[in-house]
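Entry 12.
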Amino acid sequence: MRCPACLQNGTFEAVGVQDLYLTQQQHFLGQRRCPNPKCTHVFVAWDGNTNVVLESMPAERLDFDATNLPAAIQKSFEEAIACHAADCYVAAAMMVRKTMEEPCLDQKATGVNLKERIAALAKTIVLPKDLLEGIDDLRLLGNDAAHVESQTFNTIGQEELEVAIEFAKEVLKATYQYEALRKRLVALKKEIPPATSA
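Predicted 3D structure (tokens):
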């Protein structure tokens, strides 16, 4: 996950150590740091011809806002994002599915399987129809990852997981974060003094 300085500047600074150039592959290996002193130190390999990053350690992670998320949900989702960053897409799909199971447990949506619990969740919280249907799609993606015979999706790769993680973020926002955001907005309103009678 990049810090705001990384995102704003778009580049990391050199650390004063000479980059290593691999002539046969025409690749560079080097170290970089974010201008933010609290951010991470990164080891990076990039193609010398295209300037495309081939690998970085630690791997860049997708960001997400954990505000107001119950600890179990946050833990599952962080693991999904860590698996994605490590290119472990099957494991990431299973953890996204687990992340979607956690709100069902938290909201006491019951059923014999996740499909039934998702249907019960629709009765305990207010979510748009597309989000509820999407939770079921995330369940199916997780099934494909966990079971050889499940084949709803063509593949479980980077694109599928990036879309799944973005979708899961929206579900978590709608379930746990919009109310707090609205309260912050309301708190910023100017107080109107009570009307006085003449």
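Annotation: The chain has two domains: 4-57, 71-176. Residues 4-57 form one domain.
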